[in-house]
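Exercise 7. Given the components listed, write out the predicted structure of the assembled complex. Treat all entries as one system.
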Amino acid sequence: MSDFQFTPSPDGREEILRIEGLTKLFGGLRAVNNFSLQLHRGDLNGLIGPNGAGKTTVFNMITGVYTPTTGSIQFRGQEITGLEPFQINQMGIARTFQNIRLFPNLTVLDNVRIAYHPHAGYNLLDGIFRNERFQVKEKELTERAQEFLSVFGLEDRQGEIAKNLPYGEQRRLEIARALAAEPKLLLLDEPAAGMNPAETVALMDLIHFIRERFNLTILLIEHQMRVVMGICEYITVMDFGEVIARGTPAEIQANPRVVEAYLGPGAAALSEKFRRKKTV
Amino acid sequence: MFKKIDRSSLLFLGGALAFFIVVQALISLNVLTAFWNTILRIGGVMAIVSIGLNLIYGFNGQFSLGQWGFYAIGAYSAADITYRWTNNASTDGLIVLLLIVLLVGTSILLLYRLLSRIRGLDALSAFTVYLLAAIGLSVASVQLGRVIAPPVNGLLQALPPDVATTIVFILAVLIGGLLAAEVSFLFGLPVLTLGSDYFGIATLGFTIIVKVLLDNSDTLLGFTEMKGARGMIGIPKVTSWFWVMFFLVLVLVITRNLIHSSTGRAIISVREDEIAAKAMGIDVGYFKTLTFVLGSLFAGLAGGLYAHVNGFLHPDTFNFIKSFDPMIIVVFGGLGSITGTVFASFAWALVLEGFLRLLLPSGFETWRFVVYPLLLLIMMLLKPNGLFGNFEMPYLRQILPPLRKKTSQPQSEGITVKEANV
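Answer.
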């Protein structure tokens, strides 16, 4: 799949992300090999693959945690490889983490307000002297943070310490915090991990909802096939650091290479047999 | 044009004023002896150092043992300025250090803007640039100071001696603080890239270096008036209870306003989760440096005040063993609790130097170093979160903004997230 073709969006949407020939070596291990991906504004794409396929490594390279060995990542036409994670975030890429990473001892409100810091609009001295600028901007920022909390149904929880929230609410808070940074592109790393079926359904609705409301482009990693097949419009499958398949959920489900990557060699033939039986 | 001052601020400022007046009255009426007066002033000075450390360790999560080194820098530089003024009637120390502090400070601010634009600049090369600039400007300041000092000298001589000494003293304390802050910036640049434990060891190294330099200040550094390991005498004893309280309240107000601003939240986020902070657009390196510099500024201020309490400085006071004192105070009072730090500082001074010294039978005074660790041990077992834990007095507490009105609930077609919640 290395002969990936970059194409303009058929309906003329802006290109948000273009990853070309991305490779990451950890010593002798080729964690990601020649990975390419293209996202247009408003896309909701999935990145799947068995454990250790290199999905999170791709996320870490996009967000600047790792520097790619070779390859380029362009965000809205700008090269972002080599930038610091905070700079990439300020350009408009936000993420959540596989294992939730909130600021555990801070209040729910402060978790969101911290993400607002780059947009705070006042500096250190304004804060120390508590001048007019501080009063106005701090009020504005607090209100926006509360608005986010209310969108996510967390407004009554603003004073609660983040680590005391139930698991589902922590996940929602993490997404709220990522969105407070006002991103164009949102990367979700296994958002449904550890959620029960009801919470998973709610999460899927939430992802749809935020895409519309905040005009987002979303790339998500997920192991729960229900989520991936249910909401993603386009899916990229990785195995051993390489892309083995791309396509719509239906195409991916029918792809023998994907089935074998998940279930082992020979599984594709077996599943084909079952499918025929079902249809007969 | 003045806005209404809220109740907690009024309570805090009123309380501080009342505390100041009561103690001052007791001092003036000779109810408090010079011994207790000194102990109270030391307590206040210790509170300023410890608030600085609480910023670095309690709020930013960087385990630093360098606080004592910056305290020493503040003490000796301030002492040198006032010593030269009172004993030699010369302002060359004041003018030269003032120039150094101003020029180096400005160059650091300018260079920081310039260098932060360079993509992928490593800390060590940045450090080299800053260091060369600092050395160059310091040499220039010494030359320039020789020219400016005589006219300023004449100007200050014309003032009444008390007023002139007070002006020199205030400037000396501020210069001591700024000098400590600038040294901490240069030192922190390469060292703050280290992880927390390694950072602790590196800062311990800094405190030891400062102590050794002070031991040899008359020979190695060439400041004969500091008298090296024999101890510096002849510093005017001008740190009154008023100045201690003045700087303590100033530091408290600055700290409180800082912590409850967006900058403060960014500082705390670094302690909470560095990786998440980076992913949320927080420049972790900048906030570590900022907190370290601010904490050291407070240490330097406190050092300047301390130098003028007893009028005597000795390198042994700045031994690295003593650098654990502010650390103990911060943990004892409760990490991240400013109230706790202030309380613990006064308690530390009153108990260790005051009551224990008086209560223990004569000849057993040194046993206070046995009783005091025991008290610490018991305390840590009973209250591991420190005396105050997360408690803050109302003035220092974060005020939770009121909830928004429900009417502004955003309307969206199709699903709303509230329905989607389980």
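Discussion: The two ends of chain B are 50 Å apart (CA to CA). Residues 123-158 of chain B form the longest helix (36 residues).
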